[in-house]
Specification:
The structure is a homodimer. By secondary structure, the first copy, chain A, is mainly beta. In chain A, 6% of the residues lie in helices and 30% in strands. In chain A, the strands form two sheets. In chain A, strands 3-4-9-8-5-10 form a six-stranded antiparallel beta barrel. A four-stranded antiparallel beta sheet of chain A has the order 1-2-6-7, with no helix packed on it. The first copy, chain A, is globular. The N and C termini of chain A lie far apart (37 Å). Chains A and B meet through helix 1, strand 5, strand 7, strand 8 and strand 10 of A and helix 1, strand 5, strand 7, strand 8 and strand 10 of B.
Amino acid sequence: MSFEKREGGEVALPPFDPADSDGPRMTFIGRIRSRWQPGGDAPRNIGSAREAGAAGTVELEPGYAQGLQGLEVGRHVIVMYWMDRARRDLIVQSPRHTASGRGVFSLRSPVRPNPIAMSTVKITSLDMETGVIGIDAIDCFDGTPPVVDIKPWIETIDMPQG
Amino acid sequence: MSFEKREGGEVALPPFDPADSDGPRMTFIGRIRSRWQPGGDAPRNIGSAREAGAAGTVELEPGYAQGLQGLEVGRHVIVMYWMDRARRDLIVQSPRHTASGRGVFSLRSPVRPNPIAMSTVKITSLDMETGVIGIDAIDCFDGTPPVVDIKPWIETIDMPQG
């Protein structure tokens, strides 16, 4: 297999770009609303978003509101969203905080074969009619990116054990 | 919006099946190997898999091994996989352990608009040449399902706060 060597120790994966895959298609189930605008003072990550009191909402597409049955305010959920502007073929990357190249699977970079990001957040409000969920913190820009799943956080599945 | 009412309080989402979405395509980056065979005594979930000492491996597709740079044995990662046999249009479901219908976003059911499942596991071995990762526990059948991402588990992102 041949690789494209890039600046700063990055490695791309030609001739295959995962964006050209013939795999199954994602469907978008909603949008994240936040107070962060591109070019503004968006937080670097969910940790700093939480410190800044950066609450947000998830607005589900029509039809999905019934899927919220069984959730409650105060419950933690994992919100998954699709980073639709990210390239997908950089297997080794050079993030600013590292001196050398790092593998994509050791990073939370949005640049990855399937650009899914996720955060564990707390539900602060829940409208079962309109499908709008308040969440305690979010670090992404208002209106972007599309939401692809919401899962209840479950300790035995999601917490490191042992 | 009209819904298809089903047995046991289930609700499907016609006329749209998320499987027919025109969204971006997933790419499969590897396979999970486990000792569980269909029809056998597979564990009900990752918790019971761990109790049963059910270690497994993730075998990456060619080209992705370099993406493991920066990971180490003992580190916890989130393995994400695509439940390719699951239907995608059941918004309210009736799992065996509940008396009435439950919304898909309150369940970890594989049946969901985007059938991505995930578990937080510990790396027990790591072969950077072949792209094979040993993990401490897994609850899915050998050879299925396709892996779509591996992410480092990070406390400030993945752990409930507050």
